[in-house]
Design brief:
Organism: Qipengyuania spongiae
Structural class: alpha+beta
Number of strands: 17
Shape: globular
Number of domains: 3
Protein name: M48 family metalloprotease
Oligomer: single chain
Domain LysM: 436-483
Number of helices: 17
EC number: 3.4.24.-
Keywords: Hydrolase, Metal-binding, Metalloprotease, Protease, Signal, Zinc
């Protein structure tokens, strides 16, 4: 969740394409028509809105490196003037994601780059996205495209509660998190983009097996996240990644690249990403266990036990079996009751049933607050929608918007009452994490290196996934590996 000066609620009709899997190469054209003026205009209009939704574009040597690799792999697509026609952006986002939109705009998050272990993997991910552009996948499915900001999507979801199933409704809510609602492409299109990425790797001289290894790392990270967050389903949450189940695609990608060889540029890649910001950016707030702390907004709250959080560019999402919630903000005119009423109105849209039974004022840890609850039918049952708002002064307010099965709204009571202002000293102690590339010494082991990871839980598991090390696999002296450390 950003500071007030960077908060974005932009809606866009751009089509975010997902990183996924591959079909028969025999049906894939070796070259594509140049990007048209219409496609370029579509991308140019959506580009700044997507940057705002995904934490903004990073600058500096690391961003330049990603751009260089992406533009070089784009040349392999056969698109006329591919290098000049593609805009490749490194996004300041802590989720593992990559996507593209028409007009040659390709994006990858710094978190996904941190998960990679060589330049070939970076080229493979970007090549997949270039493949989506070259194959004009978005144009084929544009009629289905519908992108919204966090509040816009949530409003549509809540507005459709009447007549909708509670399971589907809660599931849609949970998918919002920090990302746009992305267009789902057909399996054949996703497979085609994967295979195009493998082809581009091969013609560029990279090791095409990198496509399967980066997918394996992504699958391992998804599984680790599920374990650390206490979830049973490792393929979730899709709010944290638009990549549909990378585990199911590792085998296919490995088969398609079997017998192919090429360079990986591992050491070059690791040297170039050394120092990259990892995890949450303090300017957008950080998640530490069950606690969310925003040093610039000077606030903190604690999620309920058994729930997990994801921090995005426009909201903090809190998800669990008992319900879902988001912390975000809206325009504030100075009246906290009106603020709550306006949030309900925005969430409900034309749904006249989404009105709070009453709006009550209260105080939470010295912070003036107000809240309301609305109960509506879902078709298969009833749900409660809660808006709990806080007045932070300087004509600024923040609010939770939550949804639970009817009668279960108290699952978030502790979280609502945990909201507090933090001191300047506590804010100053929020230190970011970074990637630190080190060379393995003669006395180093996986265990000794893992103990240097800036986490109190899962140190060895985090180290292995970060470095693509299988269970039981050891490190060797002279090898470069990644650590996650505090400060820089």
């Amino acid at each position: 969740m950003p500071s007030t000066r960077t908060f974005a609620t932009a809606s866009t009709a751009a089509i975010a394409l997902t990183l996924s899997g591959c079909a028969s190469m025999g049906n894939i054209p070796s070259a594509s028509a140049p990007i048209t003026q219409s496609e370029a205009q579509t991308g140019a209009e959506a580009h700044p809105q997507l940057l705002a939704e995904f934490g903004g574009a990073m600058t500096g040597p690391q961003a330049q490196y990603v751009q260089q690799v992406g533009q070089n792999i784009a040349v392999q697509s056969g698109l006329g003037g591919a290098r000049e026609s593609f805009t490749v952006s490194l996004l300041n986002s802590s989720v593992n994601n990559a996507f593209a939109i028409p007009g040659g705009y390709v994006y990858t998050t710094r978190q996904l780059v941190s998960l990679m272990n060589n330049e070939a993997e970076l080229a493979g991910v970007l090549g997949h996205e270039v493949g989506h552009v070259a194959a004009r996948h978005s144009q084929r499915r544009q009629a289905q495209a519908q992108q919204n900001s966090i509040l816009g999507v949530l409003g549509a979801v809540l507005g459709s509660v009447v007549g909708g199933g509670i399971g589907q409704q809660l599931g849609q809510f949970a998918m919002q998190g920090s990302q746009l609602l992305t267009l789902r492409f057909s399996r054949s299109q996703e497979l085609e983009a994967d295979e195009l990425g493998i082809r581009y790797l091969n013609t560029a001289g990279y090791d095409p097996n990198a496509m399967s290894t980066v997918l394996a790392s992504l699958a391992a990270q998804n599984a680790l996240d599920a374990q650390l967050q206490g979830r049973d389903n490792a393929s979730l949450p899709e709010w944290a990644s638009t990549h549909p189940d990378p585990a199911s695609r590792v085998r296919v990608a490995a088969q398609k690249s079997q017998g192919m060889t090429g360079v990986t540029n591992r050491d070059t890649f690791l040297t170039r990403i050394d120092g990259l910001l990892y995890g949450d950016d303090p300017s957008q707030g950080v998640i530490e266990g069950r606690q969310f702390i925003h040093p610039e907004l000077r606030l903190a709250f604690t999620a309920p036990s058994g729930f997990y959080m994801v921090n995005g560019s426009s909201a903090v999402s809190v998800n669990g079996q008992g319900g879902q919630a988001q912390l975000t903000l809206a325009p504030y005119s100075g009246n906290i009751e009106n603020y709550v009423a306006n949030v309900f109105a925005k969430l409900g849209g034309q749904n006249s049933q989404l009105r709070p039974q009453s709006i009550q004022r209260t105080t939470v840890n010295g912070i003036p607050a107000a809240f309301g609850t609305a109960r509506v039918n879902s078709g298969q049952g009833q749900v409660d929608v809660v808006v709990f708002a806080y007045e932070f002064g300087n004509n600024q307010a923040y609010h939770f918007q939550a949804i639970t099965p009817a009668g279960n709204a108290n699952v978030f009571s502790g979280m609502f009452n945990s909201m507090r202002k933090i001191s300047a000293n506590e804010a100053a102690n929020v230190v970011p994490r970074h990637i630190d590339v080190v060379t393995v010494g003669s006395g180093d082991t996986v265990n000794t290196l893992a103990r240097r990871m800036a986490y109190t839980d899962g140190q060895e598991a985090r180290f292995r996934v970060l470095n693509g090390l299988a269970s039981g696999e050891n490190v060797r002296a002279g090898q470069k590996v990644k650590l996650v450390v505090r400060g820089r």
